[in-house]
Amino acid sequence: MNNREWATSLLHPLVAVLVGLLAGAFAIWVVGASVIETYAEMWKGAFGSFYFATNTLTRATPIMLAGLGVALAFRAGFFNLGAEGQMVLGAVAAALTALYLPGPGWLKLAAALFAGFLVGGLWSAVAGWLDAAFKLNLLITTLLMNYIAILFAGYLVTEPFKDTTGSAAIAQTPMIDRAAWLPKLFSGMSLHAGFLIAAVAALLLYIIIRHSAFGYEVRMFGYNPSFAAYGGIVRTRVMLISMLASGGLAGLAGTVEVLGMQYRYIDGALTVPGYAWTGLMACLLANSHPLGTALASLLLAALQTGAMGVERNTEVPLEIASVIQAVLILFVSAKFSYSFWKRRKARESHGTTV
Amino acid sequence: MEQLFDISLLNSTVRMVTPILLAALGGALCARVGLFNVGLEGLVLIGAFAAIVGNHFTGSLLLAILLAVLCVVLFSLLFAYMAINLKANEIVVGIALNFLAVGLTTFALRTIFEVKGAFYDKNMDGLPSLTLPLIDQIPVVGPIVSGHSPLVYFTFLLVVLMHIYLFKTVSGFRLLATGENPIAAQSMGVKVRRVQYLAVVLCGVFCGLAGAQLSLGQVTMFAEGMTAGRGFIALVAMMLGQSNPSGVMAASLLFGFMDALSIRLQGFSIPTHFTLMLPYVMTIVAMFLFRDKSYLQLAQRGGGSDR
Amino acid sequence: MTVLLEMEGITKLYGTFAANRQVSFTLHRGEIHAIVGENGAGKTTLMRILYGMEQPTSGTIRINGEVKQFADPADAIKSGIGMVHQHFMLFPSFTVAENIVISREPTRGVWFDRDEAAARVRELSERYRMAVDPYKKIWECSLGMQQRVEILKVLYHGADIIILDEPTAVLTPLEVKELLETLKNLAAQGKSVILITHKLHEVMEVADRITVLRSGQVTGTLRAKETNVEELSRLMVGREIAEMQRREQKQGDVVLAVDDLFIRGDGGKPLLDGISFRVHAGEIVGIAGVSGNGQSELIQAITGLRPVDGGSVRLLDHPVTNAPVRTIRRLGLAHIPEDRYLWGAAKDGSIVENAILHQYGERSYSRFGFLLQRRLRELTENWVKQFAVKTNSLFEKAQHLSGGNLQKLIVAREIGQNTPFLLAAEPTRGVDIGAMEFIHAQLLKKRERGDAILLVSSELSEVMTLSDRILVMYEGKIVGEVDGREATEEAISLLMAGGGAR
């Protein structure tokens, strides 16, 4: 990438963020609140104190992991929209592993992390396999498999593995042994070691995509599948591995949330906040760049925790965050500057005869 | 078992199929001009919400439906502008549109009705069910066909109208041409963009109606995310039906039947989680059984790599 | 003869690059006027301006003495201009009649009167003596028939001036002959024809006048009767074309052996039907044929991109039938693909990323699964230098390279593999004459090193200059073999049309 391309690739999300905030301002104005005051509250809610800032990082953790998973699949040109289901299955698998595996706490923890990654990954790889072997459209199968996964996980915690000790109304597993919890990073704060896992994952994924042979295959596949095939890169292999890792990261997102925050699998606790979909948005915002996805996850998490602050202190509801996010994503997909750039470039390289 | 399959199951199939069929017909129009509209889900959701708003504030069903159509058309214009003028990836725009629909409806639910989750007002009237004279006297057929909302009948009429439009009129011919080879159509002076806009706007109208049927024809309430993937199932119906009105209808009927069956099965001693899963599982199974190259091409063009 | 169209002082600038500079051009009523020039000479730009697809930077267009400005093709069509594009603008699943009447459909109210459309097409086809079946679907028609549809379409829309862009590229020699007859017939009925081509023999046969373009400028407008092929090519290229030196060489061992290769088609007709041949070390075997006669399938079968239903391929005596691409490449295959944008490159990838496709996994270029970026960059740098690929930076995206430069990069990558066998498919399609000469020289050099080359090209002159032996493909079969030194264009053309002994 040369400098000008760098500039455009950065400019793009920035413009989108601006448009998103403008749309949010419009929504706030419609509700009849003060725009400046509301945004000030939002800032305070996200970064106003050390407590709020770590809260934001906590919320960013599953978003980041899910977003990284999506980013990997997108880089290879596969529209994996099943992060939510992969996350939920990973989470439930991790919770059950930590609950029922005998042994010391560290073993339970390690096994739970692995199980979460594996189950999320396998669920995603099934969709990859359906595409590779039977040409079922991946976008649709991953979407539909979300509903199946969420319902199945819901079944597990309402019937066979339901926590019968506490109040019977909530569908959830029993609580995991304290020894298998992910440690908190600061006492009294919600931030847990899962954030470190996410940060390391972002860095690793960046290095793998940019510098490894497999990353090269993924990129070439995303650029032009025929070119990759011509060079002897096998589609099925790239698809299965990247879908496995992609779903695995989503599964890990659910896993760290279970092991670091909730200490049990609670039905709906992962889907209602929309972690996976926010991760997808972060990935779109960053055009599937791993480090960018991590940053965008922080931004979107801040938007959400900020909106909670807004709801606490003003009459604007916290759903303002979803409006801002959606507009932001809508505009990041437009290619104004990009198409303008392309047109100019075409002229320079004298696009005469085809 | 005599309780499982009976006439009222088929009756509810006809009712359940309507939103799916409407959205799938809209999606088919978009597909026919070369746009893969993943935003159907969000468009229907907006329609469902707008219909409730219209009904609540005007008390008129007609105005409620009109408001639903108007709102959804507005959002489909946004889709058209992003995908056609700004050349954004249509899949990304569709996904973003779904986010926008969820965000806006929950936001508006809070600000307009000051409730979370769902809005229900017992003073609201749903769409009336029409009893068809004479036909309802016929045994078996009568109870299945009669007693639905006007939108249901309109939808099945629409299948016929759309077939005639696409394959018999000049305007429909140009629409097909635009989808088949936009560059060639353009070179012959067909206003490609105008045709694409037309298709997207019509899709908006259909999805608006679908939303109205969902929130007024079946339950008379709005719940967050109440489309529950029906827009995506409609997408599959469109693909399986190869964007032909009659094919789309056949596929939609299959999925509508699954929807009705999944509700019916709740009365039996099967965990509800599994009965609710049925439509999604069957959709994947249907994709598997009715694999066909021609729809794959479109799906690949839409769902393939975008960079 | 009355002047129908005048283009005067047409200049078209893209940035600082002039695609057309002060081009003037006149067309008489009932005349066939050819525009010739090499790739990139500005022929297509000129015609796109006339057809309203591009706006000139300066200059005027007059029709019947009246100044015209065309904002889009619809304007041009209204002024009686029609264009038959090089890549047909047709709707494959529509009928012939539907394709012809589109945008001026006969109607009854809002209804599309398809029978009336067919009747009008039939009438048109009789008047201009071009046989078509109005109810046939386009995808069922031969390319020759499709071209007739294109011409009828232009006539249906009321064109007096018909522009044909490289109309003979996809036709069999027989169809070419028919087309040229049709054009003469049209001119006789008062239509004016502009023929864009680089095939000088066709031009000499049919044109009344010829305008030659070079680097965006007119280098001469001549009467066909008063000139010859030699003069035209001199005006086109601006210098004598260097004669290729092909040293005699002894044939070596068999490198590629193809036996009885068979691929089923969708309909009843097989795509490949019992193809057998050998390529020896130190020779170039050319495969000639009108494109679409199974060459693509043969290429993909040999290189592992498409499974075959029968027969065998052996490379250096190893069986490679239906083997994975990587395996075949490791055994000694390099492959210049027929479509550089479809197969040959990742447009959004950098030059380096495009260059290292076959090396990134090798032991000397990666360690523990990670790429040794510096070595890969040096490798790319070497190739870029050796093959004179013009670029500002190795990290520029491939899509910013011109067609010729990208092709040179691909050729560099493939020849750089130093394999005993190279499959070169359309190695010079759409590149300028400088790049073409360069690539040809590289292929001959590889041959002299004792490597085997299979050259597949729809450009007959290319096959004839380079090949030691020429095989001709027709409808999925090899219908003849000719010695490269003794081959004549006539003999090969006959075979290409399926007219040889089978």
Structure in words:
- The complex is a heterotrimer of chains A (354), B (307) and C (502).
- In chain A, α3 runs antiparallel to α10.
- The longest helix of chain A is centred in the middle third of the chain and has 30 residues.
- Chain A has 354 residues and is an all-alpha fold.
- The C terminus of chain A is likely disordered.
- Chain A has one domain: ABC transporter involved in vitamin B12 uptake, BtuC.
- Chain B has 13 helices and 2 strands, in the order ααααβαααααβαααα.
- The termini of chain B are far apart.
- Chain C is α/β, with parallel strands linked by helices and 502 residues long.
- Helix content of chain C is 33%, strand content 26%.
- Chain C contains 17 helices and 24 strands.
- A 6-stranded mixed β-sheet of chain C has the order 6-9-10-3-11-12, with helices on both faces. A 6-stranded mixed β-sheet of chain C has the order 18-21-22-15-23-24, sandwiched between helices.
- Chains in contact: A-B, A-C, B-C.
Can you tag this structure with a few keywords?
heterotrimer; A: mainly alpha; ABC transporter involved in vitamin B12 uptake, BtuC; globular; B: 307 residues; mainly alpha; disordered C terminus
Write the layout of secondary structure elements.
The complex is a heterotrimer of chains A (354), B (307) and C (502).
Chain A: H1 3-31, H2 35-47, H3 50-75, H4 83-100, H5 105-134, H6 138-158, H7 194-211, H8 213-223, H9 225-230, H10 235-262, H11 275-285, H12 290-313, H13 320-332, H14 336-348
Chain B: H1 7-32, H2 40-58, H3 61-85, H4 90-113, E1 118-119, H5 141-145, H6 150-168, H7 170-180, H8 182-187, H9 192-219, E2 222-223, H10 230-240, H11 245-264, H12 272-289, H13 293-303
Antiparallel strand pairs in B: 1-2
Helix pairs in contact in B: 1-6, 1-9, 1-10, 1-11, 2-3, 2-4, 2-9, 2-10, 3-4, 3-9, 6-7, 10-11, 11-12
Chain C: E1 3-14, E2 17-28, E3 32-36, H1 43-50, E4 58-63, E5 66-68, H2 73-78, E6 81-84, H3 96-101, E7 107-108, E8 111-112, H4 114-127, H5 143-156, E9 161-165, H6 173-188, E10 192-197, H7 200-206, E11 209-214, E12 217-223, H8 229-237, E13 254-263, E14 272-280, E15 284-288, H9 295-303, E16 310-315, E17 318-319, H10 325-332, E18 333-336, H11 340-344, H12 351-355, E19 366-367, E20 370-371, H13 373-386, H14 403-415, E21 421-425, H15 433-448, E22 452-456, H16 460-466, E23 469-474, E24 477-483, H17 489-496
Parallel strand pairs in C: 3-10, 3-11, 6-9, 9-10, 15-22, 15-23, 18-21, 21-22
Antiparallel strand pairs in C: 1-2, 1-4, 4-5, 7-8, 11-12, 13-14, 13-16, 16-17, 19-20, 23-24
Helix pairs in contact in C: 13-14, 14-15
